[in-house]
Amino acid sequence: MHSPLFVQLTNDLLWTNSKTTKEKENLPTHKAVVNKRQELRRRKKELKRRRKVFDELNNIYTPKPYEPKMLGPNGAATEEKVFEDDLSEVVICPDCKEYPPNLVEEFSSGDMVCGSCGLVVGERIIDTRSEWRTFANDDQGNDDPSRVGDAVNPLLNGSQLETTIAFGEGRDSKNLARLQGKGQDKTSKSLLQAYRDIGSFSDSINLGKTVSDSAKHIFKLTFDHGFMKGKPQEGIFTSMPNPKVMHRKLTLFPAVIAGCIFIACRQAGVGRTFREIFQVTHVSKKEIGRVFKQLESFLQKVKEENPSGAGSVSNLDGYKASASTSAEDLCTRFTSNLNFRNAQKVENISRALARKTSTVSELAGRSPLSVAAACIYMASHLLGEPKTSKQIAGTAGVSDGTIRTAFKYLYQARESLIDKEWGIDQKAIDALPVN
């Protein structure tokens, strides 16, 4: 038999071995539990620390100590001022250096000037005051003294208060387009398109703004007085100047527009031929001449009915109904395009020759183009800067045979045409080409 002590020791050893075996089997679970407990302790400490910092910052539990304050002049307690950076910009005159500065803002010139010495301290200042201006003098009717927008355009009719709606891709785009078509004045739309065509045609042959505006006024006058009735309204397709991008645009009343431009050239003293207008507007010379005659009689009739010259009729005061483009006027344009070394002298001699061609009976029925080209041909040889008939023909738009034929008549009358005051030697006269 074993003693009781031996039995107890044996049982304790067996229990210890069994416990160690179980702990080894459950080791991962034990580590997870230990890590979780450590994480909870760490979070608890962090929450305590944050709470302590929050209480110290907000001073919830500790009352603030009493601080006596000084009374101001008006009896109110003055608060302690906290230091702050002064970021305001102070402009001081660099010459006077007065503080506070004596600066005056001149909004008319946009400058800031020192009131003491007159030095300009700043420029391009913005006028922030309220703007109350009157535009009564800009309107002919004087009915809108403080409007918003542009002045009334005398070239258009109506109130000119249409609203332009942009195109879109939404579901209401069709409705907006229909409203745009209903609300827009058809008359103004046609006039604007005609004015755009007149402006583009005038710019393409360098007519200038004066001629373009005059042509627009004449077109407006014919439009208001019903001259368009019975005229063909179908347009013609004209190509844009850029040959790479051939855009096509539709021109309404092309013959009337061409006639208005031709009359405006006559009125401004700018010599242009039917052929030049044809090259720009693509309207035949025959059609331009026919409409020109109708416009001529129509404008004379309107001028007789309104002798005071009110409105657009005042633009017809300088127009001569029976006048035609003279060879003298064409000489100026052609000589400038031929690049003479002494272009001014060639122009003067050719113009003087053109004035005297009325005495040559053989040139009475010839075109001013051929007469002007022949005068330039003779003047270039007289001044020692000869140009061939082909060179002049390319500029004048006539054939070289026509120039030689007209020059033959000038050569036959050279003794009566050439004036001694021009300072031309007899050798130069004798050296003129026979043909």
From TrEMBL:
GO terms for molecular function: RNA polymerase II general transcription initiation factor activity; TBP-class protein binding; zinc ion binding. Residues 30-57 form a coiled coil. InterPro entries: Cyclin-like_dom (IPR013763), Cyclin-like_sf (IPR036915), TFIIB (IPR000812), TFIIB_CS (IPR023486), TFIIB_cyclin (IPR013150), Znf_TFIIB (IPR013137). Belongs to the TFIIB family. Residues 89-122 form the TFIIB-type domain. It comes from the Eukaryota. This is Transcription initiation factor IIB. It holds the Pfam family Zn_Ribbon_TF. Keywords: Coiled coil, Metal-binding, Nucleus, Repeat, Transcription, Transcription regulation, Zinc, Zinc-finger.
